[in-house]
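Researcher: Let's do a round of design. I'm pasting the structure tokens now; please hold your answer until I've finished.
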């Protein structure tokens, strides 16, 4: 899909794929697409979820899996443009180091109807991803002034000294993460409440640990931002989130039969 710079040109989501006929928590992704389409003023095709699965049948894996058991082997970018045309772009999922490093960048500026949605003007996120590579980091974290609002392909979550896990507020531009939606109950069952908050730089720097979440990456530990260590990686929050994610990888796959 060619980036036009127009947020209303397309709606998309990235879903974990088993390389055959199943998508991970497809119903949650489709529900988010519907929510975001209303904000973007896009009309989705009738029975779009079934049509996505029908197109999935004709796809073949694009390479050999390189991930471990903590990630899905493949991901698919599902796009629906303003004309209602559905596109599926599969790729092999990438492997991650045990502890990630990040750089900080300025978050893109969009109006309130666009911020926090998976929209057509995705180029700034691609550029943020490339910038991380250029600086020898794994990901970019995006700040609005001194408030952390997003990652280039992930949602950041911190464990504060008060024992509560905090993630960026959707009202301030953060994406409503499907991965967080899937593992929230498991994290809270492990004794860690999760709340939205303004993730200021002082709050981040005093964090006990930090993780990042995404449909492709799953749950990963983040060790540093711009060379500054953030807490102690792979701690209590990471373990609770990872355990919950493993449950999802084991039981949350859906096929077209699950939606009919």
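Researcher: That's everything. Go ahead.
Model: Designed sequence:
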């Amino acid at each position: 899909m060619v980036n036009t710079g127009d947020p209303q040109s397309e709606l998309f989501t990235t879903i974990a794929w088993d390389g055959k006929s199943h998508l991970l928590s497809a119903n949650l992704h489709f529900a988010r697409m519907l929510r975001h389409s209303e904000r973007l003023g896009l009309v989705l095709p009738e029975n779009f979820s079934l049509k996505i699965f029908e197109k999935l049948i004709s796809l073949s894996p694009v390479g050999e899996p390189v991930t471990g058991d903590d990630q899905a082997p493949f991901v698919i970018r599902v796009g629906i443009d303003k004309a209602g045309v559905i596109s599926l772009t599969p790729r092999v999922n990438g492997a991650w180091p045990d502890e990630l490093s990040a750089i900080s960048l300025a978050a893109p500026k969009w109006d309130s109807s666009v911020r926090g949605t998976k929209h057509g003007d995705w180029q700034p996120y691609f550029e943020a991803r490339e910038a991380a590579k250029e600086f020898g980091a794994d990901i970019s974290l995006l700040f609005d002034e001194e408030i952390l609002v997003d990652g280039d392909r992930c949602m950041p979550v911190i464990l504060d000294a008060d024992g509560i896990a905090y993630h960026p507020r959707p009202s301030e531009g953060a994406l409503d993460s499907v991965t967080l939606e899937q593992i929230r109950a498991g994290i809270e069952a492990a004794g860690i409440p999760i709340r939205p908050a303004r993730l200021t730089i002082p709050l981040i720097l005093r964090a006990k640990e930090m993780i990042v979440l995404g449909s492709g990456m799953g749950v990963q530990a983040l060790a540093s931002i711009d060379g500054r260590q953030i807490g102690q990686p792979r701690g209590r929050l990471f373990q609770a989130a990872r355990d919950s994610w493993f449950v999802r990888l084991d039981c949350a796959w859906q096929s077209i039969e699950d939606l009919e």
